[in-house]
Amino acid sequence: MVQKKDIACPTCGKKNTWMPDNRFRPFCSERCKLIDLGDWASEKHRVAGELVKSEEDSDEDDHV
Ligand SMILES: [Zn+2]
Q1: What range defines the domain where residue 12 resides?
Q2: What is the pLDDT of residues 13-59, one digit of tens each?
Q3: Sign of CA dihedral 14, 18, 32, 50
Q4: What is the pTM of this model?
Q5: Ligand 1 center to residue 1 CA distance, Å?
Q6: Which of 28, 32, 50, 58 could make an S-S bridge to 11, C-beta 3.0–4.6 Å?
Q7: 32 CA to middle of ligand 1, Å?
Q8: What residues have a C-beta under 5 A from ligand 1, the ion?
Q9: How far away, in angstroms, is 36 Cα from ligand 1 center?
Q10: How far does residue 59's CA lie from ligand 1's centre (Å)?
Q11: pLDDT digit string (tens) for 48-64?
Q12: Which helix (H) or strand (E) holds 39?
């Protein structure tokens, strides 16, 4: 018996069927799988580029 399940592709949201012989599951196609991976990669890239922290905490002792 073949196990089939209705799922939605995480990338495009298209309804598709989970089939044991679909090697791109849970994506509907290789394309959507690659898009998802690309998204993840670009997100990392963006975060790394935006990480500009100004740590200019002049913590001088102002005891009078
Ligand atoms: Zn898709």
Answers
A1: 5-45
A2: 999 887 788 888 889 889 999 998 887 677 665 655 555 566 666 67
A3: positive
A4: 0.52
A5: 26
A6: 32
A7: 5
A8: 9, 11-12, 14, 28, 32
A9: 9
A10: 53
A11: 555 556 666 667 777 77
A12: helix 30-50
